[in-house]
Design goal:
Layout (H helix, E strand, L loop, with lengths): L9 E4 L1 E6 L4 E8 L6 E4 L1 E8 L2 E8 L10 E6 L2 E6 L5 E13 L2 E10 L8 E3 L1 H4 L3 E4 L11 H6 L5
Parallel strand pairs: 1-12, 3-11, 4-10
Antiparallel strand pairs: 2-3, 4-11, 5-6, 6-7, 8-9, 9-10
Amino acid sequence: MAPRHPTPQSLVGWREWVGLPGLGVPWIKAKIDTGAQTSSLHAFGLREFTKDGARWVRFEVHPWQYSPRDGVKIELPVHDRRRVRSSTGHIQNRVVVLIELRMLDRTLPVEVTLTRRDSMGFRMLVGREALSNGFLVDPAASYLGGQPPRPVRKANRREE
């Protein structure tokens, strides 16, 4: 049987440092989640509004897990709304936006749901739709795409 995507395969670990170049977020730690169909991003202060007759959303991304430092304010058009079952089993109606995701040495457009992930270990989940663009997951590996410089990694640690 021929592969569904003839794209060359890129190997990722169960967690990776990724970037959101169109949003001004050079590094954010993401969990690679084959159990999630759509990717998800932790969004603070989520507010929908109308701009030129279209639906838009305003939110803030805090790239560091335990800190509001380096927060980025973002406004994007609403691409869709989806009913999503969270990892806790609750069904939520979430806003979906289109963003660019940089993973390994590739940048691709992905659909991302916006939600509060306060209790979760990662600010972002990369789901199956994004992974179907030629990524294979090694569940025993981490950070196969490399890591940011040490000061960037230290900024992501819990402040004691």
